[in-house]
Write a structure and sequence with these properties.
Number of strands: 3
Strand order of the largest sheet: 1-2-3
Structural class: mainly alpha
Mean pLDDT: 75
Order of helices and strands: HHEEEHH
Helix content: 40-55%
Number of helices: 4
Distance between the termini: 62 Å
Radius of gyration: 23 Å
Length: 106
C-alpha cells in the first residue's frame, strides 16, 4: 500500500476500542425495563415500589397529580393515571384532557 492510502485508512483497532468504551458508558446509563409512559410527566412518584424503592427497580410507585394533588395509592399504573388526567382531574387544561381521552378511547 502507498503511504497516502495508509494515512487515509482508519485504524480499526482504535475505532473498536472507542466503540467498546461507548457501549460500556451507555449500558451504565440505561435503566432496566421499558421507558416510562409520558403520563408520568404530570405526576410525582411517591412511596415505595412493589419490589424496592422508587429508584428504577421493577414495580409501580404511588403517584400524586401535579395539577390537583390527587393521589393514587398502591401500585399506580399508567392506564389509571391517564384516566385521571382525561376524565377526573379538575385542574388539567382542555388540550391535555382531550389528549388523554383519545388515548383511553383508542
Amino acid at each position: 500500500m502507498t503511504e497516502v492510502a495508509e494515512l487515509l485508512m482508519p485504524n480499526t483497532e482504535d475505532i473498536q476500542d472507542k466503540d467498546d468504551a461507548n457501549d460500556a458508558e451507555t449500558s451504565k446509563k440505561r435503566k432496566p425495563g421499558r421507558p416510562k409512559n409520558d403520563v408520568w410527566n404530570f405526576f410525582i412518584e411517591i412511596g415505595a415500589r412493589v419490589q424496592g424503592h422508587c429508584d428504577g427497580i421493577q414495580g409501580h410507585c404511588d403517584a400524586k397529580c401535579k395539577e390537583c394533588d390527587w393521589e393514587k395509592k398502591a401500585n399506580a399504573k399508567s392506564e389509571e393515571l391517564e384516566t385521571h388526567i382525561g376524565f377526573q382531574c379538575i385542574k388539567a387544561n382542555y388540550q391535555l384532557k382531550e389528549k388523554y381521552m383519545n388515548i383511553i378511547q383508542n
